Amino acid sequence: MSQLEKIPTLSQAQQDALDAATFRRLLQHLDENQDVQNIDLMILANFCRNCLSKWHVEEAREQGIDIDLDAARLRVYGMDYAEWKANQPEATPEQIAAYNAKTKGC
């Protein structure tokens, strides 16, 4: 039995609802851990809140929904992006070095 065969069979509606709930939980987790900066996420996982915002816009467009980046950022950040950014510390030299080392050659 393959690993995929162990996954319960879900209807498309069930899978969509589960995926949406998981996304909401991810947003809640990020909101509860605002001390984790975007650069930290980029260093560790190659994505950040800005990436999620851009993906939100791209997926909306795929479905014929007109959502701009500001609206997507409001959804992902839970606040206006300018407000979020104003409350975030500058990246440290160590963070910048780690980010540059990871993205070198990308």
TrEMBL record:
Gene3D superfamilies documented for this protein: SMc04008-like
Matches recorded under InterPro entries: SMc04008-like_domain, SMc04008-like_sf
Native source species: Litorimonas cladophorae
Top-rank taxon: Bacteria
Lineage: Bacteria, Pseudomonadati, Pseudomonadota, Alphaproteobacteria, Maricaulales
All copies of domain SMc04008-like, residue ranges: 36-100
Annotated protein name in UniProt: SMc04008-like domain-containing protein
